[in-house]
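User: Here's a protein and a ligand (protoporphyrin IX containing FE). What would the complex look like?
Assistant: Let me lay out the input and then the predicted complex.
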Amino acid sequence: MIDVNEMMTRAAGDAYPMYDLVRSAGRMLWIEDMQRWLVTGHREALAVLRHEKVSSDRSRWDAYELPRGQDRPPGGMFVMDPPDHTRLRALVQQAFTPRVVERLRPRISSLVDALLAEAGERGEIDLMADLAAPLPATVLAELLGIPAEDQELFREWSTTHVEAIDPVSHVLVSEAGMAARAALQRYLEDMVARRRLQPRDDLISGLVRAEREGDRLGGGELLEMCLLLTVAGLETTANLIGNGVNALLDNPDQLERLRADPGLIETAVEELLRYDAPIQLSGRVPVEDIELFGRTLRAGQMVGVILGAANRDPEAFPDPNRLDLTRDPNPHVAFGRGIHFCLGAPLARLEGQVAIGALVSRFPRLRRAGEPRRRLNVHVRGFASLPVAL
Ligand code: HEM
């Protein structure tokens, strides 16, 4: 009998040999048992993610069932197609351009300095709890305008929620996940109501303004957007920092290389994203039958795109299982591709570069201080705990 727990633990622990196995059976494979396509090849992943006749709207899936209590699939623009997707994305895009994000650098650096100063005094820390999780939560909370005393709760809800999302169908698969979503939603509803009365200089107030300026944000869309940013931006960035540091500790030669040449940090973070991506899976549904690489993907079928597998495809990346911080070009798909390319990529990159760069340069004796514990989730890949000594 298959022990699901054991299988999940193994896949979450080291998913890559399993991906290689699937890819060797077919780079784009119909799995009858799962009633899904699994895409593990890089060029196949790009072709699906960029295809015009492929939808992100999971309700187009033949077997889709609307989650209880919802009147449309949750996920905001994540699960929308043009023209609605285009309109919503344009509204928040301006808050996340590389130029706007670059202005956050001093604030991000000082947050990292403060977290590392505290960590340095203790000598041993849990990298997740003490650096990787609080940094993105604080940055996003400040952008949205959420007060410091609520950030812990905010983080907890978003983690529970995001882990309960089936990445391919985007359906919430646990009661705990639904409860966390409801709590997060109530909290944000309250925030939005307060900003409606008294706007400030934050992202929620900006969205409230956009809502007032005509029909650019419809019923519920503002709230959905705030929810989406929370769900999309916290755990992912935390896992970039956690998975990244873990990969460096597994590859001391690369860690030394970065320490000797801090100028490598930009290509280093791209390689860390490729090597152990925080989001491993995405999903799409063809809206009409399409031919790709000699296969027919039928309208209404679910297509699971395994980003983590595409990132280790030997046809796209020479020696794909080797961590090479100077890898260039590095066309990884950790942020997806096409019109849904991660909106928060400039912010995530900046946070990753500042946090990992500072940790490595400031603590030359950085090493493990116990067994890391991975989360048992094959979609959101990351650690529950990662003890390190400084
Ligand atoms: C290392 C950290 C991150 C990773 C690995 C990541 C990954 C991704 C991926 C793979 C997608 C595309 C999903 C798809 O096509 O189905 C995506 C979309 C998105 N991400 Fe990120 N993300 C990260 C950080 C962030 C941050 C910090 C934010 C915002 C604060 C954010 C906001 C979004 C949004 C709003 C979308 C939807 C874009 C659209 O549908 O047009 N992400 N992200």
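Summary: The mean pLDDT is 90.
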